[in-house]
Design goal:
The protein has about 220 residues and is an alpha+beta fold. Helix content is about 50%, strand content about 10%. The protein folds into 2 domains: about 80 residues, Glutaredoxin (3-Layer(aba) Sandwich), CATH 3.40.30; about 130 residues, Glutathione S-transferase Yfyf (Class Pi), Chain A, domain 2 (Up-down Bundle), CATH 1.20.1050. Strands 2-1-3-4 form a 4-stranded mixed sheet, covered by helices on one side. Helix 1 packs across helix 6. The model has no long low-confidence stretch (mean pLDDT about 95). The structure holds glutathione (GSH).
Length: about 220
């Protein structure tokens, strides 16, 4: 029996998990929930995850929540290069990267993206975004530097959980940079390749992965 993955379109956390399933060739039943219809707060899903958050994975009677833990669970089910490394030393390094992404990259991305994605554009939007830009660029520069050593953030010949933890946040900030409210602000992320050529090439490597298309947020295709 294949696992079930509950996810929402555009959730960077859910996207991580779909990328991990694709990379590890884990077959899954897609349970796409509609945020606008509040399906993630409906009784049917609260019975799976009482916290009402996606992603969640169901594997028989077992439910796993939290994107990093779900990626780890998928790692145990899949084939091909392990997302959390093959040795203790590799796992330590990959977890180090994942923690850095969760604590620093996410916050830096949200600082810039949230005022553009959700707030009503007003005089303060530009101020909030501009105040958040240095932290974002510090994180992006850190990723760019890491990619000077090889194709993947945590090194190694194949993508790890660190790459899939970071990738959706890069896409998220690029999408925010395309919003109407961002027109008057130079965010320095579109096109990404202009300032961060290695990051752009890394994105392209992930996008070329078999199964990538199934992970792409469906409502982003509509604009
Ligand atoms: N730390 C969680 C974050 C999950 C999360 O916040 N998901 C959002 C969607 S992007 C959600 O379901 N939010 C609904 C809510 O918080 O009520 C993870 O890594 O999976």
């Amino acid at each position: 029996m294949s696992v079930e993955i509950y996810w929402g379109s555009g959730s960077p956390y859910a996207w991580r998990v779909l990328l991990a399933a694709a990379a590890r060739h884990v077959p899954y039943e897609s349970r796409l929930l509609s945020f606008s219809a509040k399906e993630h707060k409906a009784p049917a899903f609260l019975a799976v995850n009482p916290r009402g958050k996606v992603p969640a994975l169901k594997d028989g009677d077992r439910v796993v929540t939290e994107s990093l833990a779900i990626m780890h669970h998928l790692d145990g089910l899949g084939s091909g290069p392990a997302l959390f490394g093959a040795s203790h030393a590799e796992r330590t390094h990959i977890l180090e990267w994942c923690s850095r992404i969760v604590s620093d990259l996410e916050e830096a991305v949200y600082g810039v993206a949230r005022p553009l994605m959700f707030a009503k554009p007003d005089a303060d939007t530009a101020g909030k975004v501009e105040a958040a830009l240095p932290a974002l660029h510090a994180e992006l520069a850190g990723l760019e530097t890491a990619l000077a050593q090889g194709d993947w953030l945590a090194g190694g010949p194949a993508p790890s959980a660190a790459d899939f933890a970071a990738f959706p946040f890069l896409k998220y900030v690029e999408r925010a940079a395309g919003k109407e409210a961002a027109r008057a602000i130079d965010l320095g992320v579109r096109p990404l390749a202009a300032r961060y050529p290695r990051l752009a090439a890394w994105q392209a490597r992930i996008e070329a992965m078999p199964g990538y298309e199934r992970t792409y947020p469906p409502h982003w295709r509509e604009g």
